[in-house]
Specification:
Elements: H1 25-37, E1 42-45, H2 48-59, E2 69-73, E3 77-87, H3 92-110, E4 114-126, H4 134-137, E5 138-141, E6 146-149
Parallel strand pairs: 3-4
Antiparallel strand pairs: 1-3, 2-3, 5-6
Length: about 150
Amino acid sequence: MIEQPVGRPLPVLPDAPAGRTVIGDPAAVKIAAIAARSVPGVHALGPGAGRALGAIRDAVGASEPSHGVKVEVGQTQIAVDISLIAEYGYALHALADAVRGAVYDALTDMVGLEVIEVNVEVLDVHLPQPAETKADRVRTTGSTGATQIKPPVE
């Protein structure tokens, strides 16, 4: 058996038997999804309803990492469509370019087909949860039941 570092092509052996290799859509989809999720600023892949179902699948251990990614794999080329939710604060065009580059690099390195396009659709922007809500700042103290309001934490 030939040992190979992760992400590196195996050497071509001169006495290897001839044959055909077919890359299945699920393999390419997972590679693209992992690459897209690795980009800082990507909150999630896919539309909202699908993410809710994905959270349920995650809870029962049946995670679907490829939600929000579609591929078309040909004999020598591959095309990818990715829909994502961005984190608030990231420039959306720059984020899409970074996702496009990461997916292109991952598919080129791991699948070995010509990537003809990576289309990125930013569906929504995820807003961060406030550190402390107004209700959290109001509290009752002492035996008199007096209410004190704490200043917001910044």
